[in-house]
Amino acid sequence: MSSQGSPEYLTLAEAAGTLGLSVTTVRRRVKDGSLRSEKVSGPHGSEYRVVIDHTQVRSVAPDYGQDQPPTSVAPIAILERQLQEKDRIIAEKDRRIADLEEGRFQLGGQLGAIMEKARSLEEQVKLLAAPEEKPKRRWWWPF
Fold it and tell me: Is the predicted pLDDT of residue 55 greater than 70, yes or no?
């Protein structure tokens, strides 16, 4: 920012960075009137320039309970919490995958045993269902 008394005319992205807000929030605040803006002609049509003076920075920016801008500590703490949560979720999924693989291994063994039992039972049924073989009658055997 320039000197404390003179206002600056910033783009939406620059104002968002200065105030520690998102571009969407800056647009919303321009629309509801909590941030002053002016329409200027740009290379691709009209653009909004947010008028910011030194007193607005503290009154519009969110209060993180610090004297420094929020971009230094708050996002890092949020990212660290999100990273810890993702690590916890990944560890839980890895545990579930290991449990499922162990269960699959056990089921594979049971399936093999059941298939072998079914094969032996099929052989027994074939033997029971097969007709008895009678010796072929020869002409010289007595009637």
Answer: no
| Domain limits, the chain | 8-70, 73-128
* Count of beta carbons in the 10 Å neighbourhood of residue 16: 18
CB 21 within 8 A of CB 61: yes
Strand arrangement, sheet containing 8-10 = 8-10, 45-52, 36-42
Task: Write the pLDDT tens digit of every residue in 79-134.
Answer: 888 899 999 999 999 999 999 999 999 999 999 999 999 999 999 998 888 777 77
Minimal CA–CA distance to 50: which of 80, 90, 93, 21?
21
Alpha-carbon gap, residue 98 to 106, rounded angstroms: 12
| Cα distance between residue 31 and residue 74, in whole Å | 27
pTM equals: 0.38
8: DSSP letter: E
Name the token pair of 27.
Answer: 């647009």
List the structure tokens of 41.
Answer: 């002609």
CATH number listed for the domain at residues 8-70? 1.10.1660
H helices present in the chain, as ranges:
12-19, 23-32, 54-60, 74-129
